[in-house]
Design brief:
With 1660 residues, the protein is of the alpha+beta class. Helices cover 35% and strands 30% of the residues. The relative contact order is 0.05.
Length: 1660
């Protein structure tokens, strides 16, 4: 069982999550709020007109809706009588409705009386103003109480402040007394520094004390004011106490009225429901009786239908047999056509290959012939030169002979062409005679007849007259003719073809004219010539030609008037007028002879100038200037055309004459397809249905270009070409004619390139559509039509449906320049005399076991009556029936029959041929037999049969165990098995069951499945067994058994539904609920076996869904009876890592693809540049191989990049997902498992009962975040890392507004005493804008810091986690082992010592080196010296920071470097230099190394000693203060020195203390060092020492080792002094003895060393 939703009991209240806007509502409270909102809306609408009449009264509260209802009912009593009168007048309405209205009025009147009974007792009727006054008083009283509580709260806060202030004053007084005592104590010690410091603290404390006293006075005044105000409020409350009591009484009365009205309403609804059920029962009884009658009639009709079905099936089988036979015949024809087409394609391929081979052989032979001819000429020339002949002369003579021979051959060709022209003229005359016999001769004048006969005779004579060549041909023509002769072996055949083409052209030209005047020559008279040539352009002669013409005419005796005439036409006419080369083929040579005739008035000359630029490469002109030509004389010009391209060409040949220039047009046209049909409109007339008529049209191609054609109803012809293997005529549904003319085959054999240009084309002809039309095409629907061929096309008219049929067929051609030819076809079909008016009977959608009927109408247009028989097939007789079965239809009238249809459950079995059980479609063909009519009247019955069942997906619903404080929701799917919408409703539902949606009522669409939520809310802890009844709209009942168990839960959740606010990704929402161990003294529920005792400790555990953004705290725990636990639920939506990685991979692949495309384009450009730069450098590597070689290295890094992790694009992928994020709504069910009690043993798992499990539903909407972090790879953690204490680091954090609306930014407050601070202020952001937060980190302690900065927007709170760690730089110094305790040097020597500092931390540090002698805060001879003088030298640990310095004022110590930076792990040498300028043993200074954050690395006390000689002794006890005297050394005026005094003797004291512990005395040991200074000023580089009188010393227990020794320069020697008390030693006795120590170097120095020893029992 699925638990989808659980709600708590009415005891649980609602919860809101405060600022986070998390709404937690229980089910019962939600219903109450909805009812209150509904009541408020009604009250607002009804109170608006009432409030206008109330003067100075506030509007009623929004929860008083039922006040108007009470007033309406009271007013309704007076209006009821008038309404009864009006209702009695409506007698046409149903009795049931009138009865219900009367009952409603009686019930309303009674309810109104009972509801207003208390009012009558109290005050007859309460006005709206009184009720409003009551609620206004209640609001004012509530405000007064709230104000009183606020004043009490303020007074409590003021009292707390006063207590805190007094506590602060007392603590300040105690601190003041303590400071005063410390000041007196320090004054007694004469410690001025401490007295000054304490005095300062005392002043600050007194100031604070004064401030606290002033604050106390202010708080007391405020407290007195609040007490006064509170007393005033209490007095006010006392004044309104009586009013409060009155309001409470009115409210109680108001509640009683409301309850009475609710009872009245329930009674009214109950009575109305009873009346409705009674009417429904009556209606159902009537329907049952009708259904019984219809069932009987349905069975009878079904029998008839089955009989008719058998008859129809017989005819259907015959029709199917004929259809199959036709399909087989069509397939056989298609296969035969494919075979013929394949054979034709194969033969075409073989012909093309043979022609190509022949062409190659011809070209090869021509080339060999030319080479052989050149070779023969060279041999002949060499042989002639060898014989002594003139080779040039002989060769010239040979060429002349060849030229004569060639001219003779040309002359014979021209004669042959003239003969052909004569034949053409004769044929033309015969055609003209035939036309004259058909057309009446035109009325010609005698002059016109004379001219026509004369010109015909001249033309005939010109053709018959032989014209020998007048001059040598042009060299270009000669060259081309030579090439043509050498390139072909069949020159005779080519010349014959040229002659035939010229003959065809002449015949075609002359047949275009209708009369004899169209083809006769021009008249020789000028007047007639000007009338004929008005359209020609006038050509003006030049002045020079006019002058010459005038002179010539004067000499010849002609009239001057003739020379002065100006020509308005060309001086020469051409015959033909246009040099037309029609239907040429590329590669063939064509010749055209043009005759130029002088039609001017005088003698003129003719000279060829040039030809148009468009024709220069294709046209050559052979024209020999004839000299002066008289009027009427002519000359010939031969135009040769060699086409190289298959395009139309047009230009002119330009000539120059005496009267000016003129031109002859030249036009060259390619082969074109010129189709036409003999008839474009066909009318079949009227024919009866079933007849077949055909008409034939002729398609003729008048052009020289063959073309494929297709005939169909579409205007579109697909130009897609196919090879012979891909050509499938069956797929195109075409049948082409295999006939071909001999001329088309000759074209294919002679010109293979033409066949390649026109391969098989695919035509979009849909024969399926045409086959089902009344007008169809014959077998020939497409194919190839050759030049000047004709094809017969057949069109058939087979009417099947009465009416007029008009279709337009289009003949389409593969030539794109040829337009389709439309063929308009019309035919009229006349129907049978008897027919069914509606041949298609559609019964729409029918339900099983329901009755349907239809009227069949039959029409008769005959003038006699006919007998009708309605047939019903045998299979449908159980379901169909036609009444009557037989009948007569009168002349020119109609007959009707009734069709009855009752679909049974057995329809799918009975009528398998007509009924499709999957779709429910029923299609039954029916016939009406007519006596005397061959074809029966046919009609078809269509219906969609469907079921009316409603089906549950479960046979039984088990709710399981449900708490009486919660409910269980189970989903049941209700499916409408019908294809019609059905109404449904759950009736008689128990009170502990709720059906949703729509309270169990609704409509199911066809085949729709609706999820019904059954909500089980047990009221008692018992077992439930019941049935849910679902009724359909047609009254069918569907029962669903249900069962469940109610029990009392051990633990209770305060809320079982949490509705989080829309939370942005990266934000969080928090809700708080309570888990309570319910304590029941009854100890157990009634189901002892199922649920354990309630009073027991319970363990609980929340189980979170996997991959959810939910966290619960605490997730597990233990609750004692009656104990309550606070549970916090947090929803924090985040992006899944899987989604981010997938987006990163997508970005990576997109990037790689773009890079590869750029590489490929770049390589292509480089390869193109190389091809251009190196076009002729021999054989190169193919482009594919180069590309492969160049791409393969670059592909390896790409593969490695694709396999490498995509962490670089992780931030971009996350930003992309956030920017394109769409809102998501998720629901989670969190289970809380509850144990039956404590485990029996500590290590044993407790038992968890499934029935005790609690469920918490979470509704979690997720929205797009308005803010996006754009810095730091989108991470909201700002880590300052390690920062040295005292330093300040500033980081920047950038956010962007990715929403579509502006947002206002605010931030939370950071800890004032914390190290983090926000430097800049917040501002508003428009969509797309960015804002940078400047954050600073200033640690003061060595620890880790973490704080959260909240950036708030109206829809999101962005958490910025600030992290940082305050660290001390770990910098070590080696001064302890590298620097000596005292640096010894002689006067004016320079001694340098080195030590190192090492940065062992992880960051770079900045340091500086300081000397105390250079600091202004540590003056020389300051406090340290005063302390030494005052305190004496008792404390040997006290040393001045700055001691004796040089007399020059400079420090005796110097250090290098003074500052610098030290990288992690690096070392730095520090050099300390000692430069004394006088002798002293008290040179001191203090060296301090610190970082920039005031953190000290080390502090070194530098000591220096400058003895008077190079030997020194150290390690003794100090006898004087470690400073030099400020007084000068006293020197007597007359010193008298003896020899003994001249010997230096320096006293020294060495104290040895032996320790006594546990009865054992440990010897005392001291160490002295004797050293020798290495100095360039010393005379002796080394020294020696020795002890004298060691015997006396040893008697006292002292041992000195070594007794003597040598010390080298720059080194030292240690002397160990050990004292062991003797047996005669007495306690507390001090042993003292002196021993001399002699040191020899430049001078001899004797030290008097006093050894003092004693025994001490203390550790010091």
């Amino acid at each position: 069982m699925d638990f989808e939703e659980f709600e708590c009991s009415p005891e649980g209240g609602s919860l809101k999550s405060g600022l986070l806007d998390v709404l937690l509502r229980s089910f019962d409270e939600a219903e109450e709020e909805q009812e209150e909102e509904h009541v408020e809306e009604e009250a607002e609408e009804e109170q608006e007109p009432e409030a206008e009449h109330v003067h100075e009264e506030p509007a009623p509260l929004p929860d008083l809706d039922w006040l108007n209802e009470l007033s309406d009912e009271s007013n309704g009593e007076g209006e009821g009588k008038d309404k009864d009168k009006d209702k009695d007048k409506d007698k046409d309405k149903d009795e049931d409705k009138d009865e219900g209205k009367d009952e409603g009025k009686d019930e309303g009147k009674g309810a109104g009386d009972s509801a207003l009974a208390p009012e009558a007792d109290n005050s007859k009727q309460r006005s709206f103003a009184e009720i409003a006054r009551m609620f206004k008083l209640r609001r004012n009283l509530d405000q007064l109480d709230a104000l009183t509580r606020q004043k009490e709260h303020d007074m409590q806060k003021a009292s707390e402040k006063l207590k805190i202030c007094r506590y602060n004053i007392e603590s300040c007084m105690e601190q003041k007394n303590q400071l005063e005592w410390e000041i007196e104590h320090q004054k007694a010690k004469d410690n001025s520094v401490a007295v000054f410091r304490l005095g300062t603290q005392l002043e600050l404390l007194c100031q604070n004390l004064q401030n606290e006293v002033e604050l106390e006075g202010q708080i007391q005044a405020q407290l007195r004011q609040l007490e006064l105000e509170l007393n005033v409020m209490e007095v006010e409350r006392g004044h309104v106490s009586e009013l409060r009591q009155e309001v409470e009484e009115e409210e109680q009365l108001f509640e009683v009225l409301k309850a009475q009205k609710a009872v009245t309403r329930l009674e009214q609804e109950r009575k109305v429901s009873q009346n409705r059920q009674r009417r429904i029962k009556l209606f159902m009884d009537e329907q049952a009786a009708k259904l019984k009658e219809e069932e009987i009639e349905r069975q009878r009709k079904a029998e008839e239908f089955r009989a008719n079905r058998k008859i129809a099936a017989k005819y259907l089988r015959q029709s199917n047999k004929r259809l199959h036979q036709q399909v087989v015949e069509k397939e056989q024809q298609n296969r035969e056509f494919i075979e013929r087409r394949i054979q034709a394609v194969e033969s075409l391929k073989s012909n093309i290959a043979a022609n190509q081979e022949i062409l190659r052989d011809q070209q090869k032979r021509a080339k060999n012939k030319v080479l052989k001819k050149e070779h023969d000429e060279r041999q002949l020339k060499a042989s002639l030169e060898a014989q002594g002949f003139n080779s040039f002369k002989q060769m010239y003579l040979k060429r002349q002979q060849e030229e004569k021979k060639r001219k003779q051959q040309e002359f014979e060709k021209r004669q042959k062409s003239k003969r052909l022209e004569i034949v053409a003229k004769i044929l033309q005359e015969e055609q003209l005679l035939k036309k004259r016999s058909k057309v009446p001769p035109p009325s010609l004048s005698p002059h016109d007849k004379f001219l026509s006969l004369r010109e015909g005779r001249e033309v005939l004579l010109s053709y018959l007259e032989p014209h020998p060549p007048s001059g040598p041909p042009s060299p270009e023509l000669h060259k081309r003719e030579c090439i043509s002769e050498s390139s072909s072996t069949s020159s005779d055949s080519e010349s014959f073809e040229i002659e035939m083409e010229e003959m065809d052209e002449i015949v075609h030209k002359h047949t275009e004219y209708g009369t004899t005047s169209d083809f006769l020559a021009e008249p020789e008279f000028s007047g007639l010539w000007e009338q004929e040539c008005k359209t020609q352009k006038p050509v003006l002669s030049s002045p020079k030609s006019e002058v010459k013409e005038a002179e010539f005419s004067m000499e010849s005796g002609m009239l001057h008037a003739t020379a002065s005439k100006t020509l308005k036409r060309p001086p020469f006419s051409s015959n033909p007028e246009v040099a037309l080369f029609k239907d040429f083929e590329v590669g063939k040579r064509y010749k055209k002879k043009i005759v130029l005739t002088n039609i001017s008035y005088t003698i003129s000359i003719c000279r060829f100038v040039r030809i148009s630029a468009e024709l220069t490469d294709f046209i050559s002109v052979n024209f020999q200037p004839p000299g002066s030509l008289s009027t009427g004389m002519s000359c010939e010009m031969l135009v040769t055309f060699l086409p190289l391209i298959n395009e139309d060409l047009e230009g002119e040949c330009y000539f120059e004459s005496t009267f000016g220039p003129f031109s002859v047009p030249v036009r060259c046209t390619i082969k074109k397809c010129s189709p036409e049909v003999d008839c474009q409109s066909i009318d079949f007339g009227s024919h009866v249905v079933g007849q077949s008529v055909s008409r034939t049209i002729t398609l003729t191609n008048n052009g020289a270009l063959a073309s494929f054609f297709s005939m169909g109803t579409s205007m579109r012809l697909s130009p897609a070409r196919r090879t012979s293997e891909d050509f499938d005529p069956e797929s195109e549904n075409l049948t082409f004619s295999s006939r071909r003319s001999s001329y088309s085959l000759g074209l294919e054999e002679g010109h293979p390139m033409e066949s390649e240009i026109n391969p098989h084309l695919s035509f979009d002809v849909n024969l399926t559509f045409m086959d089902y039309c009344d007008i169809t095409l014959g077998n020939v629907r497409g194919g190839e039509i050759g030049p000047f061929q004709s094809v017969k096309l057949e069109i058939l008219f087979k009417p099947t449906i009465p009416g007029e049929t008009i279709m337009v067929f289009y003949i389409k051609f593969s030539d794109i320049n040829t337009k389709p030819i439309p063929i308009h076809v019309r035919g009229v079909a006349v129907s049978n005399p008897v027919w069914v008016i509606h041949p298609c009977i559609d019964l729409k959608i029918c339900t099983i076991d329901r009755f349907y009927q239809y009227t069949i109408v039959v029409q008769n247009r005959e003038n006699r009556a006919l007998k009708l028989t309605f047939d019903v097939c045998q299979k449908m007789r159980k379901h169909l029936e036609i009444i009557p079965k037989r009948g007569f239809i009168q002349a020119l009238s109609t007959s009707k029959a009734q069709l009855k249809f009752i679909p049974r459950q057995s329809l799918s079995k009975d009528a398998q041929d007509y009924f499709d059980s999957d779709t429910g479609v029923l299609e039954v063909p029916m016939t009406v037999q007519v006596a005397g009519q061959v074809l029966p009247a046919q009609y078809t019955i269509h219906a969609i049969v469907t079921s009316s069942d409603l089906q549950f997906d479960q046979t039984e619903v088990d709710f399981g165990h449900c708490s009486i404080c919660h409910f269980v929701r189970t989903t049941v799917c209700l499916t409408n098995m019908s294809i019609l919408p059905q109404d449904f409703g759950f009736v008689a539902v128990p009170e502990y069951i709720e059906v949703q949606p729509g309270d169990g009522f609704g409509t199911l669409l066809p085949q729709e499945t609706l999820e019904i939520d059954l909500i089980f809310t047990p009221k008692k802890p018992i077992e439930y067994n019941f049935q849910l009844l679902c009724k359909s709209g047609i009254g069918r009942d569907f029962v669903l058994p249900c069962q469940g168990v109610g029990f009392h839960p051990p633990l209770v959740l305060s809320h079982s539904l949490i509705q989080f606010r829309p939370t942005a990704v990266g934000d969080k929402s928090t809700a708080t609920i309570y888990l309570t161990n319910y304590q029941d003294k009854e100890a157990a529920t009634r189901l002892i076996k199922i649920v354990s005792a309630v009073e027991a400790p319970r363990l609980f555990c929340f189980s979170l869904p996997t991959d959810s953004d939910i966290s619960i705290t605490p997730s597990a725990g233990r609750l004692l009876p009656g104990e309550r636990c606070l549970v916090q639920v947090m929803f924090r939506p985040v992006l899944l890592e899987k989604m981010i990685m997938e987006e990163a991979l997508h970005l990576q692949s997109t990037k790689l693809i773009s890079e590869k495309e750029q590489d490929v384009s770049r390589l292509a450009e480089q390869e193109m540049k190389r091809d251009i730069a190196e076009p002729n450098r021999g054989r190169r590597t193919p482009g594919f191989a180069k590309r492969k070689e160049t791409i393969s290295p670059s592909s390896k890094p790409a593969d490695r990049a694709s396999l490498s992790p995509v962490f670089d694009l992780y931030g971009k992928a996350r930003d992309s997902l956030l920017r394109s994020f769409t809102p998501v709504y998720k629901e989670y069910i969190v289970r809380c498992f509850v144990s039956d009690g404590d485990p029996p043993e500590p290590n044993v798992q407790p038992t968890w009962s499934p029935i005790n499990t609690l469920h918490l539903k979470l509704e979690c909407p997720t929205i797009k975040p308005p803010l996006l972090v754009t810095s730091g790879d989108g991470n909201n953690v700002l880590d300052f890392r390690n920062v040295y204490i005292g330093s300040r680091v500033v980081e920047r954090f950038t956010i962007q507004n990715i929403s579509e609306e502006p947002v206002e930014l605010t931030s939370s407050l950071l800890d004032i005493d914390g190290p983090f601070s926000l430097v800049n202020a917040m501002r508003g952001l428009n969509p797309g804008e960015k804002h940078t937060l400047v954050l600073a980190f200033h640690p003061t302690m060595k620890k880790k810091y973490s704080e959260i900065l909240h950036v708030r927007t109206p829809k999101m709170v962005l958490e910025i986690i600030l992290r940082g760690e305050g660290t001390l730089p770990f910098v070590s110094s080696s001064h302890s082992k590298d620097l000596p305790d005292v640096i010894y040097a002689l006067e004016k020597d320079t001694v340098s010592q080195h030590f190192k500092i090492t940065n062992r931390s992880a960051e770079t540090v900045d340091y500086r080196v300081m000397l105390a002698s250079h600091s202004l805060n540590s003056p020389q001879l300051g406090a340290d010296r005063v302390t030494l003088v005052l305190g004496g030298h008792r404390d040997t640990q006290i040393h001045p920071a700055v001691g004796t310095q040089n007399y020059s004022g400079l420090s005796v110590f110097s250090v290098q470097p003074l500052e610098g930076s030290l990288a992690p792990g690096k070392k730095q040498d520090i050099t300390v230099t000692f430069q004394p300028d006088h002798s002293s043993l008290c040179f001191t200074d203090r060296l301090t190394i610190e970082l920039l954050n005031k953190c000290k690395i080390c502090e070194i006390d530098l000591k220096g000693a400058v003895p008077s000689r190079n030997m020194y002794l150290c390690g003794e006890d100090p006898l004087t203060v470690p400073i030099d005297s400020l007084l000068p050394v006293f020197t007597p005026l007359h010193p008298q020195l003896t020899e003994v005094e001249e010997k230096l003797c320096v006293p020294l004291l060495v104290t040895l203390v032996a320790s006594y512990e546990a009865g054992v005395i440990r010897p005392a040991v001291r160490e002295l060092k004797v050293g020798c200074i290495s100095s360039p000023h010393a005379n002796k580089k080394s020294g020696e020492f020795h002890w004298d009188d060691l015997g006396a010393v040893q008697q006292q227990g002292f041992q000195l080792e070594p007794a003597k020794g040598i010390v080298e320069a720059g080194s030292s020697c240690s002397v160990t002094i050990t004292w062991t008390p003797q047996s005669t030693y007495k306690p507390f006795e001090v042993v003292r003895v002196s021993v001399p120590l002699t040191v020899k170097s430049d001078e001899i120095t004797t030290y008097k060393v006093t050894l003092m020893a004693f025994v001490s029992s203390t550790t010091d």
